[in-house]
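Fold this sequence, please.
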Amino acid sequence: MSILDKNDSIMIDDTEKLTCVITGAETVHSHTVFVIKVQRGVSKDAIWMVRRRYSDFVTLYENMKISGVELTLPPKRLLGNMEREFIAERQAGLQTMICEILSHPMLTACEIVKRFLDEVNYKRNQVELSLQFVSMFLRSEPDWELIEHCREFGTRIRKCFFLVKPKAQPKQRLLLSWTQYGPDRLLQMKDLTSGMRLLPNIQHPSIETINYASASENGVLVIRPFNKDGSMKDRLCKTKPMKTPYLKRYCSPKNPISFSVPEVRQYGRQILEAVHFLHNKGLAFHHLHSGNIVIEKDICKLVDIESYFVGIPPFYKSFYSQFRKIHSSESIDVYSFGHLLYEMVYGRPLNKPTIDSLPPSSPALIRSVLESILSVEACKNGLPTLEALLTHTLFLDETVSTVGIKPQLKIPSKLKDAYRQYKEAQERKLKEEQKLISQARRLSKAKAYHGSDSERRRRKLEARKKSMKSLDIPEEEPSNTKSTPATTPITPSSPQVESTSSKRLVCYM
């Protein structure tokens, strides 16, 4: 059974890293336009030029202020703003600001930033597009009624949320999500549709119930219970969904909290068991982070498990794709769990691929788990398995209450084969991407080395030595006589000296 489904449309990986350099400035109609060279990922084919005025940077800065992240915007100047020195100074300041934005994982994932640097691929209004598909669904399924759109509910650009209610129970509130397919969609439509039908049948105490799930050629629609307290990330940031934009809620929370060690052990055990359950069924999660977990009566529940089927890149892909040892579905979930554990312990996300050091006050058991997953050595040499984490002392003695729910998911044998091929195809694709990243990294290091000041000085000194060596006159070989006669000093009038001097004068000229 073939699982590859060819699609002519070009899908963008929203998690792929964007880099940009302001290459210069132009004067257009008596105002200055800055030319920006932008690159997506490491591909040389994904490079384009963008032109932006200073006022565009000001608008971007104002839109980012809600996040609370400190950014450096060069000041405005009324007179002399067309002078060459001032333009060069402003260009350097704007480059600093855009680098500050792109270095923050949540800011660089923001649609406003994407549209600023890549207007071609992000010009469509995703909310209006999603609303069209949701309206089509509601016309075909009259049992549901739309209440409102949940604005800026999550960080996904191509995923929108709506509050709905069943007409039979008008007081009940449920959460409807519409997700467009991503670049990693590798399932045939029939297998994808079958997978969506399976989701409402999943029974597990640490996996959120799904009321309805369906797939079409345009995307996936899922309806699940609405948690008014929000996700685990909302609890850590002490915020509420539906009230403020996610940039304000998550980027710089005023009074974040962390979980106690008993809570970390209990929640960690629950999450590991749910992820391990999916892997035992031939599936995976890949989208494990604090925004995809809700807590109800001290029980953690995974949400958005449908994202595994629709091919949208995982949240931490830009991090783990740098390490070629993290290429299997299990290692992706283990790596993501490491980031989640760090956030639960310290109340803030790591925001970088690996840990440099941990606070001295960190408990030894927690330190052991974090270092086994997020240290540079672990990412380069290999991560522990889910089984190893479940048997670790930190989680071994924890018992998880099933609250009357027996874990259950029955998958037909034909679908098992399709999902096995799907997992293998995902892993092959990731390995190819990691190979390209590794090659680009080596090339970048080589260019940086050859362009460094020390290397340029070394090459210059070596070239000078070669030049001096080529100009030297070979000395006369000493005679083979056993005794060497005393050398008589030669006076300046000696013809021999004149001859030698003349020869050397000609060589140096």
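The CA atoms of residues 79 and 173 lie 57 Å apart. Residues 1-9, 478-509 have pLDDT under 50 and may be disordered.
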